[in-house]
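Box 3.1. Reading complex inputs
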Amino acid sequence: MSAIDPNGERWLAICGGIGGAKLALGLSRILPPENLTIVVNTGDDFRHFGLHVSPDVDTVLYTLAGLSNTELGWGLAGETWTFMEQVERLGGPSWFRLGDRDLATHAVRTAMLANGSSLTDVTRHLATRLGIGPSVIPMCDAPVATVVDSDEGTLAFQTYFVGRRAEPRIRAIRFDGATTASPSPEAIAALEDPRLAGIVICPSNPWLSIDPLLAVPGWRMRLEQRRVPCVAVTPLIGGEAVKGPTAKIMGELGLPLDVAEIVSHYRGLLDGFVLDAVDAARAPALPLPTVVTNTLMRTLDDRIELAKATLAFCRTLPADGLERTR
Amino acid sequence: MSAIDPNGERWLAICGGIGGAKLALGLSRILPPENLTIVVNTGDDFRHFGLHVSPDVDTVLYTLAGLSNTELGWGLAGETWTFMEQVERLGGPSWFRLGDRDLATHAVRTAMLANGSSLTDVTRHLATRLGIGPSVIPMCDAPVATVVDSDEGTLAFQTYFVGRRAEPRIRAIRFDGATTASPSPEAIAALEDPRLAGIVICPSNPWLSIDPLLAVPGWRMRLEQRRVPCVAVTPLIGGEAVKGPTAKIMGELGLPLDVAEIVSHYRGLLDGFVLDAVDAARAPALPLPTVVTNTLMRTLDDRIELAKATLAFCRTLPADGLERTR
């Protein structure tokens, strides 16, 4: 199908929400669907109105289905808000906006979970119904909850991120439930597939979107013991995040706003790093192979080009783990 | 305010969904709001998509608020169905229809319950938000579930009533949780209010809509020991129910389709019975005082006239319980 995939090689992408989903979309346009597995953060998941909401999973699903609301940056295109207007009339909580169609995703998920389906089952079902080809897999089936210790106290993730617009200063982040969670059988099968050619950590917030997965012991162990190259695409361009609080959080955690800090954060997990042309001067100082390209994804073509560059780079790296960063 | 309420007397009405709600609306139009308490069946309550749905409570709320969908016979007027259409697209359960605005009621209820509010608190909140004057009180705060033993097996109530359109033949009906439930403090206060002048059992299905409340020991005991007259308004007109499966169920339970059977069913609870002009010939055979009037409520005026006739009749009955049916 594509020159970059001459042998039916499998690829695994790890991502959070918006930024990561953009690269996942690019990957989905250059790989046959059966060759791509996208593993998504679930630390943002929460119950709202009794419904199980999986914000990052839904962002990935809607993005891959071509249904995402590009004006809002979240939710479904062409959404209506009749439900939310009535919630407001009834004095209910309106800080987390759920569109009438988006609601159906959470309702169907909640109903299936109540009937004994796993989150992986549910996500596969939703992806199929939305006409999505690649496998989209939640990082685990057991609940993991990102919790922020901030100057406003301990906050559930969505309270911090949406309710308080990521304004509180973060002191620490923890992932409740992560240490007893494990990758699903489907995720392990994708990781251990002998056809796996490489792993891509998408440009998502390392602390909020990737760390929840890395806090699951079965994930970290398997990624550290990988037999295929793993590359990360920078979430920082010129010391700033394209969107979201990555840079703000790094400052609050006392970290320099530098791609070297991202590489250091992923220590033991990376064989290569994709950095932006803006940061090209930093490349020689990084302790691992790098490639410099345009990482700002404004258009679909940007997403596709970054996906191509990332996979091409990954394929140049040693696959046996002998030259990894320590 | 009204000749029928010269002394600020309090009235308590007990009802299920549609038919009962019509009389409740009539009562609400002739009594000052603070003088009327409406106690509603919750045996129909269930979880759908993880949301707490209280069909009878909502029917009463929407009816009293003037928001009920008179075309459908349930739900909100002017409703939209964006959510349900997306649920169907996603392959979710569509047998129980939830409109976009109706959903907000269940969502706010579920959120408040999750935060520790009682069902009584939630119902008061919703009623206030919808501009409803009278007190609307669920029959209890603890969960009670009507379960039908039928020729298609044991069915949860909504599966029987909506999912299977009340078609299975009923063999028995039980109310899981009823024996350990109790009236809320608010309900007990209304029952024990020294200003209470009478109790009205609305024309709801005795087996499905009133029996759940009567299965709660604290309700049956207090109704049997009442010090004010209690009257029931017939749910049968000429041996038929206006709407719903009352007559069908009586047949399946081997009962004659006769108002005498309704009176017998409420044995020990009634001081008088309101029957329809169609059934006037039956009155002399009934073992308690009766009044004959038009009980078919097609218009708002019908509802108001039936409410007036019912309260006027009730006020003619002895209030000390000495002449009750045994």
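In summary: DSSP finds twelve helices and 14 strands in chain B.
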